[in-house]
Specification:
Elements (H helix, E strand, L loop, with lengths): L1 H4 L6 H4 L9 H5 L1 H23 L9 H26 L7 H25 L6 H28 L4 H20 L11 H4 L11 H6 L4 H9 L16 H37 L3 H9 L10 H27 L1 H14 L5 H48 L4 H6 L2 H21 L2 H20 L3 H45 L1 H7 L2 H51 L7 H42 L9 E2 L7 E11 L8 E9 L3 E5 L6 H9 L3 E9 L3 E4 L10 H6 L6 H10 L3 H6 L17 H14 L4 E5 L7 H12 L9 E5 L11 E6 L2 E6 L1 H7 L2 H9 L6 H27 L28 E2 L22 E2 L13 H11 L1 H29 L3 E2 L2 E2 L2 H48 L2 H6 L2 H43 L3 H46 L1 H6 L3 H50 L6 H43 L23 E9 L6 E10 L4 E5 L6 H8 L5 E8 L2 E2 L5 H5 L2 E4 L8 E2 H5 L7 H10 L3 H6 L7 E2 L8 H15 L3 E5 L7 H14 L4 E5 L11 E6 L2 E6 L1 H7 L2 H8 L4
Parallel strand pairs: 1-5, 4-8, 4-9, 6-7, 7-8, 11-12, 17-24, 17-25, 20-23, 23-24
Antiparallel strand pairs: 2-3, 2-5, 9-10, 13-14, 15-16, 15-18, 18-19, 21-22, 25-26
Helix pairs in contact: 4-6, 4-7, 5-6, 5-8, 7-8, 11-38, 12-13, 12-14, 12-16, 14-16, 15-16, 15-23, 15-41, 16-18, 16-40, 18-23, 18-38, 19-23, 20-22, 20-23, 20-37, 22-23, 22-35, 23-41, 32-48, 33-35, 33-41, 34-35, 34-37, 34-41, 35-37, 35-41, 37-38, 37-41, 38-40, 38-41, 40-41, 45-47, 49-50
Length: about 1500
């Protein structure tokens, strides 16, 4: 080196062993100059490649850019000035003077070129150049000092070099400062167009590294609670638009690849197999592609290809962080050594302290970058998986849909996608944990030699214990989930059937069922809490046990082994590093197992069969015909028997075809086949032109009424108004609070059945299609409305007269007016022709007509027919039960949807909406405005409010009260004791290391080991007791109490509450909030307490050892408190926004699944995919700042922790004369741990504040106003009341809620015992309200009702409701046995039940079931046809057999035969009872005692039917419409 630079390269005396250190000139001119140059040249190729890949468009030259370039050129010139100056001397003294300026000059040139190259590639702030300038400046600081010292000593020898160096230094400083500033965004970038762009995209390098760009949101969130509008837009690269297609493309490639492989396997092996098989190819296929050979496409590969590369960047950061984390224990080692050498120069100590600080700082920054990459990957995975599942659910076949219920698919979206997200965070631990363990063991071995193996043995022994606990906990979790699912399923049914529960007074029976499940759930939770206590004991005692065994073995193996401070505390800090990977490894493995299960589920769902888009031919079609089916054979699934066979239908252009037949004969299936929803086994279907479809059960979106009708088409006022008129919707609009801007609740809850169906017809009309498929749309509307719609829309004079229409119908009235009729029997076409032709053929159709032509129905005939009918009907019902079951589209499953989560999203355009709780069939008339001049629309359902601001202390107090205040204090005391024990153990260790060494050995080692062990184990034991007490006993008691109060409260709510609250929202409280109270809150409290006491003890130790530390503690704690307040306020609100925006994803999804056939028929799939994507992006918009807020916090809190390390070390250096090495080790090793606990403490504060809200929400439900008491003890009516069934209304009025108009006005009427009253009137006249008043579902506004002289307003609700019987309009069944559905309190004997089944014509069906009356009904009674469900409701009424029967006539989905059965049974069985019937079919009430005609809530007519017809009033008009007068 002397030859190269003319002096020695290294001189220890000059550098280390002096109070004023310096480096040799040779070292300064070579190493210090070359380090930054080597860095830049090494990084350049990778950076160049990165810029080529990520071109963001060029940036216009700015002043900043010009100045940077100018300084770059100056630097280059100065370096070369040095070079030419040296060459100019003529005689080159030493090579270094040429080589160094040359290298430096070329590097500066590269840096200057990079400044411009980055500008062209759109880089706004360069990280590479920032690091380069920083390195160059740091390396120039040493020569900067040396040259000044030299000038003071000897004067300046080389004027030019001296001057150029300081200019060079100044320019470096300028460049570093300038590189902290940002360029403007590139031209044409999306940032320019976005109204609220995320500042990250324009943030500088430093800002990105420290997440400084997030500060603006933290401040905003601290000042005011954040709202939706404050959130930044998502970064383009995180939106669904970019993320989902990436995954789908890779998945498609993967599928195609596997398909090719499978074909190859098939073709190679088929030749061999076919030689031995005579069973034809199908059998061969089955044999060939056994389960094992068939390769499944791997979803994992698709995920890796899509998101692997981005994730790898995070992994690189993790590797760097792991390596740096081992530097600090080595520095601690040097620091303790330094305190032992009393003559070492002080600057060593200060250097070590600052090095520890910088290492910790670097580690912090790198770790959070790693987390950021992992979390963003997780976020993209979730977006992509939800997007893929949503898109798939729009195209899967019906058989596939049957294999996964909606609940399961929603779970794929919520739970399984979430699991992937959680896994990405810690996935790197799979390789990082073993690496950290190996490194830690290597350093420990160096420190303590083979004794380490004892400690390792303890760790290895603890691993199976932890694993066993984890396995068992997992098993308990699964069990608890099963109970929780059962409980939520039951709650869902209770909420869906709450009206029926209230009408039958069955709440108590169901409440007991829920509590039974809850008890089992709590048992499991208790068991897992016991395990949790053991696991926490093992996890907190592990590092201690490891240290104890290692130290004990070390001092006992050899007397000469001395445990000094260096060995003890360096080992402790290494053991602490070991703790994290050892604990994480089992967790990562278990979440890997979970994620692999999720992966399989998602993969199998995405591999389901899709509907064949070409099953309906849209092109070649027989001339003149618009719809043709040639010998079609269809089934619901390939494996099912054919539902329809040998179907031949041809429909000419512009004709109206009616499809008729009995329940379950395949009418709806025929429509589904035309839509391409069924599997086509044979034959051809063709349709020319577009299709509009009206389903049997109207599918209504949660949107405004107008949006439901327009369904994505542009608004045309004239056409729109004409359609409303044709569908008889104008009068309804006047009654809706916001006209056509009224928001319709989920599943159309605030529209009556008829209104929903008419909206559905209006939607079809508005779409202006060529072919109309109408699946029994007229059954849900009143007779006169049906006639209006038929005349104005469907019939030969209607709006659709020139279109091709296929109408499924049960109604005979319209058949004479249709062009052709198809009669279906058992899935085949039995006859086809015009009305007259079929009559003359005298086949099944003629028979059907003769029985049911309304003119001929007279009492005696009906009774004669009944005998034969009964046999015929029972037969058809039992034959077709399986068919109806296998028709998902018909089945009412749609109504009874599991909606795990559904919050109706607030309407963004109309913030000034007012809530109005409206009831299903009640439409009050508003002032008569024309529909377009409505006042601003009103909201039925308020968006779920996200609580804002700080959680009130009241809530914490509520929770403490549930736990028990005295016990809370006791638990805090226990936490305090365990910490005291821990401090004791460590102080003892520090004391032990300071023991004097006599003849190379320490005395009293066994006593030292004994006390150390005792203190440590006391701590472990205290932790165990605390956890056991608090989590297994007290907190579960609290959650049990809280759930019980909420359940009781919910069942006591009046019905109006359930109509204004989406069931999803209530379920959410029973699922998510109760889960939070069961599991999350106890965990939060536990971790918070432990970290709080730990932090307190660190500060206590540091302050006791070096009291000067107190000076720093105060500002650090103030800063800590300040950051924490900012973070908690912002993060809490972000979490709330995130959870509120999460529900609409799932409610929109379940809504979509219910309506897939409608969406497909209208070809609106893409529009719905866009809506779903938008909802997911909205949700991620609040999730992303949430992740960043954690990074922002982490960096700031860890900075405080790093400062504590710095000051602990600094003060140890300053006071080293007074401190023993043991105490220095104690305070610094404690300080190194504090970062973690500070971070966790803030996190837990935030989590606890977010989670404790659950207590608030649940409390709200146990304190909302309830209906009247179930039983009033001193007002109980006699057992046999009512004996006569006499009902009187005295001047009775009622309204739905305070502030609304009256729906019934001053009704006065008397009904004698045993009279039969028919109630008629148009929709909204108050028919249903009148019956609800009898049950006190609505309470009187004035007047009263008496039954047999008892005022019903005075007795308990259960006493009243259990003495009345109702057969409701919608048949509601609960999952459970048929017996439970008839008699939930088990009051009646089996004989009674068989008897009523016989009377309700169900006995044949029930006895054909293997389980008889214990036949399991599925959720909502899905496995019975709608007709059978109605008969079950009849059986319920027959079983109760009270003196008063209310019959809300079931209109929908019941053919005339079933209807007749019900009517005749009621006539015979309830002969002596008082019967109120709300009639839609007037022929059923023509023989009643009296008919009550209601109009606008008042009695219009009340007399016998014959008198009313003679009067020629309203009733006469209705009878005339129905063809009865």
């Amino acid at each position: 080196m002397k030859l190269f630079c003319g002096s020695e390269f290294w001189n220890a005396n000059l550098t280390l062993y002096t109070e004023s250190p310096d480096l040799t000139p040779c070292f300064q001119n070579t190493v210090l100059v070359w380090i930054p140059c080597i860095f830049l040249w090494a990084a350049f190729p990778f950076y160049h490649f990165y810029l080529k890949q990520n071109n963001k468009g060029y940036i216009v030259m700015s002043i900043l850019n010009k100045v940077k370039t100018f300084f770059g050129v100056l630097l280059w010139l100065i370096c070369w000035l040095d070079l030419f100056y040296e060459i100019g001397k003529g005689r080159i003294q030493y090579p270094v003077n040429i080589v160094t300026p040359l290298i430096l000059g070329i590097t500066m040139l590269l840096a200057t070129v990079l400044i411009q190259y980055e500008r062209l590639k759109g880089v706004q702030s360069s990280g590479l150049l920032f690091i380069f300038w920083l390195l160059a400046l740091l390396c120039a600081i040493v020569p900067f000092r040396s040259r000044i010292l030299e000038a003071i000593d000897k004067g300046v020898s080389d004027q030019l070099r001296f001057t150029t160096f300081y200019i060079y230094f100044g320019l470096l400083l300028f460049q570093l400062i300038l590189s902290c500033f940002n360029e403007k965004p590139p031209l044409f970038s999306s940032i320019v167009t976005d109204s609220n762009p995320c500042p990250e995209s324009t943030a500088g390098f430093l800002s990105t590294m420290t997440f400084w760009w997030f500060t603006s949101m933290a401040v905003k969130g601290y000042k005011n609670p954040l709202e939706e509008k404050d959130l930044w837009s998502l970064n383009k690269k995180d939106t669904s638009e970019i993320v989902v297609p990436t995954l789908l493309k890779n998945w498609e490639t993967e599928k195609a690849k596997v398909q090719r492989k499978n074909q190859a396997i098939y073709s190679t092996s088929s030749n061999k197999v076919l030689n031995h098989i005579d069973g034809g190819t199908e059998e061969a296929e089955v044999l060939l592609l056994g389960k094992n050979d068939m390769k499944q496409p791997s979803f994992l590969k698709a995920l890796l290809k899509a998101y692997g590369p981005y994730f790898l960047i995070g992994s690189v950061y993790k590797l760097m962080q792991d390596l740096i984390s081992f530097v600090n224990p080595q520095l601690l080692n040097l620091l303790i050594k330094f305190t032992l050498q009393k003559d070492a120069p002080n600057w060593w100590g200060f250097t070590l302290a600052f090095l520890m600080f910088f290492c910790a700082l670097l580690q912090t920054i790198i770790l959070h970058q790693h987390f950021q990459y992992c979390f963003v990957t997780g976020m993209r995975l979730r977006t992509a998986i939800i997007g893929a599942i949503y898109r798939k659910s729009l195209v899967i076949t019906n058989s596939a849909k049957r294999s996964s219920t909606v609940g399961e698919i929603v779970n794929l979206m919520s739970v399984d996608a979430q699991r992937f997200m959680d896994l990405t965070t810690f996935l790197n631990m799979l390789w990082s944990a073993p690496l950290q363990i190996i490194l830690a063991l290597y350093f420990l071995w160096q420190n303590l030699g083979p004794s380490v193996l004892a400690g390792v043995a303890v760790m290895v022994l603890l691993i199976p214990l932890n694993a066993a606990i984890a396995m068992k906990t997992r098993a308990f979790q699964v069990e608890q989930m099963q109970y929780k699912d059962a409980r939520i399923k039951l709650m869902n049914e209770i909420l869906n059937g709450i009206k029926v529960l209230k009408l039958y007074a069955w709440e108590k029976s169901f409440k007991e069922k829920v509590q039974q499940i809850r008890e089992n759930e709590l048992k499991v939770l208790r068991k897992s809490a016991y395990l949790g206590a053991v696991s926490i004991f093992a996890w907190t005692s592990a590092p201690f046990l490891v240290a104890l065994t290692t130290f004990a073995v070390y001092v006992t193996v050899d007397e000469k082994n001395v445990l000094d401070a260096q060995k003890a505390f360096v080992s402790l800090s290494l053991f602490n590093l070991l703790r994290f990977p050892l604990n994480m490894l089992p967790q990562v493995i278990s979440s890997l197992v979970q994620a692999s299960v999720s992966l399989k589920r998602i993969q199998s769902f995405l591999s389901h069969d899709e509907l064949d888009p070409d099953s309906v031919d849209k092109n070649n079609i027989a001339s003149g015909c618009v719809v043709t089916i040639m010998n079609g054979k269809f089934s619901w699934a390939k494996s099912d028997p054919a539902t329809l066979h040998s179907i031949n239908v041809m429909v000419p252009h512009g004709s109206l075809l009616a499809v008729v037949g009995n329940v379950g004969c395949g009418k709806s299936s025929l429509v589904s086949a035309l839509l391409g929803e069924m599997e086509k086994l044979e034959g051809e279907i063709a349709i020319r032109g577009s299709v509009a479809y009206v389903s049997q059960q109207a599918w209504i979106q949660n949107a405004t009424l107008r949006d439901n009708i327009l369904f994505g088409k542009p608004y045309n006022a004239e056409k729109y108004r004409g359609i409303l008129e044709a569908c008889a919707l104008l009068t309804d609009l006047e009654m809706l609070p916001g006209g056509d801007q009224t928001e319709i609740g989920e599943k159309g809850i605030n529209l009556s059945g008829g209104q929903k169906q008419r909206v559905s017809i209006a939607r079809a009309l508005y779409s202006e299609a060529d072919v109309y498929l109408l699946d029994d749309p007229l059954s849900a509307v009143d007779a006169h409305v049906a006639k209006h719609i038929f005349d104005n829309v469907i019939g030969p004079e209607g709006l659709l007269k020139d279109k091709t229409r296929i109408l499924v119908t049960h109604s005979i009235t319209f058949l004479p007016q249709v062009d052709n009729i198809v009669v279906l029997v058992d899935g085949t076409v039995s006859e086809m022709g015009s009305y007259q032709e079929l009559l003359t053929q005298n086949g099944a159709f003629a028979e059907f007509l003769r029985n049911y032509a309304l003119e001929d129905v007279e009492e005696d005939e009906a009774i004669e027919l009944e005998e034969e009918e009964e046999d015929f009907l029972d037969d058809t019902l039992s034959n077709h039960i399986d068919m109806v079951d296998s028709e998902p589209v018909v089945s009412e499953v749609r109504k009874q949807f599991i909606r795990q989560i559904s919050v109706i999203s607030a309407d963004l355009e109309n913030p000034q909406k007012i809530s109005t709780r409206k009831r299903k069939c009640s439409e009050r008339k508003a002032a008569e405005h024309p529909p377009d001049k409505k006042p601003s629309a009103q909201k039925l359902i308020h968006a779920e409010t996200a609580e804002t601001g700080r959680v009130k202390l009241q809530v914490f107090w509520e929770y403490m009260k549930a736990v028990g205040p005295v016990l809370c204090v006791f638990i805090c005391f226990l936490y305090c004791c365990q910490n005291a024990a821990a401090i004791g153990a460590n102080v003892w260790l520090s004391d032990w290391t300071s023991d004097s060494v006599v003849n190379g050995t320490q005395t009293e080692t066994s006593m030292r080991v004994g006390v150390y062990a005792a203190l440590g184990l006391t701590q472990g034991l205290l932790i165990f007791i605390t956890c056991f007490l608090s989590r297994a006993y007290l907190m579960l008691k609290a959650s049990q109490m809280i759930h019980q109060q909420m359940l009781q409260g919910t069942l006591l709510f009046p019905l109006s509450f359930f109509e204004a609250t989406p069931s999803g929202r209530i379920l959410n409280r029973f699922a998510k909030d109760i889960d939070t109270i069961d599991t999350h809150i106890p965990e939060n409290i536990d971790i918070w307490m432990r970290t709080f006491w730990y932090t307190a003890s660190v500060l206590l130790i540091c302050s006791t050892l070096t009291p000067i530390f107190l000076i720093v503690v105060v500002p650090l704690m103030v800063f800590y408190w300040w950051v924490q307040r900012f973070y908690v306020a912002t993060s809490r609100q972000l979490k709330r926004l995130e959870s509120v925006s999460r529900s609409p994803i799932y409610s929109h999804f379940s809504e979509t699944i219910t309506g897939t056939s409608v969406i497909r028929a209208y070809g609106r799939q893409d529009a719905f995919v866009l809506i779903s994507d938008k909802k997911v992006d909205e949700n991620q918009k609040s999730y992303y700042p949430n992740i960043v807020s954690n990074r922002w916090l982490g960096i700031r809190i860890e900075f405080i922790g790093n400062c504590i390390v710095l000051f602990a070390a600094l003060f140890s250096v300053i006071g080293r004369s007074k401190l023993t090495p043991g105490l220095v080790g104690l305070s610094v090793s404690y300080a190194l741990q504090v970062t973690m606990s500070l971070n966790w403490m803030v996190r837990m504060t935030s989590d606890l504040e977010s989670n404790i809200v659950a207590v608030e929400r649940v409390k709200e439900y146990s304190e909302t106003e309830t209906e009247a008491p179930w039983i009033v003890p001193d007002k109980r009516p006699p057992e046999d009341w009512p004996t006569q069934g006499k009902v009187e209304f005295n001047d009775y009025s009622v309204r739905y809620r305070e502030g609304l108009d009256l729906v019934l006005k001053n009704l006065t009427l008397q009904v004698k015992g045993g009279e039969k009253i028919g109630i008629v009137g148009r929709t909204g006249a108050g028919k249903s309200s009148m019956t609800l008043c009898l049950f006190r579902i609505l309470e009187a506004a004035a007047g009263e009702i008496t039954i047999d002289g008892v005022k019903i307003s005075e007795i308990g609700l259960h006493d009243l409701r259990s003495k009345l019987t109702i057969i409701p309009q919608d048949p509601v069944l609960f999952s459970g046995t048929l017996r439970m559905n008839l008699d939930p309190f088990e009051k009646y004997a089996d004989e009674d039940i068989w008897k009523v089944l016989e009377l309700s014509h169900l006995n044949k069906f029930v006895s054909s079931q293997p389980a008889g009356i214990n036949h399991e009904c599925s959720e909502g009674g899905e496995n019975l046809s709608v007709g059978q469900r109605q008969l079950v409701c009849l059986a319920r009424a027959l079983l109760r057999k009270t003196r008063i029967l209310v019959l809300d006539e079931a209109t929908a989905a019941i053919d005339l035969e079933t209807d007749d059965l019900i009517q005749s049974t009621i006539r015979t069985q309830f002969e002596d009872c008082t019967v109120f019937t709300i009639a839609h079919r007037l022929n059923t009430i023509l023989d009643y005692t009296k008919v009550l005609v209601l109009d606008k809530g008042e009695i219009a007519e009340f007399d016998t039917p014959t008198n009313l017809i003679a009067k020629k009033g309203i009733f006469y008009g209705m009878a005339k419409d129905a063809g009865l007068a």
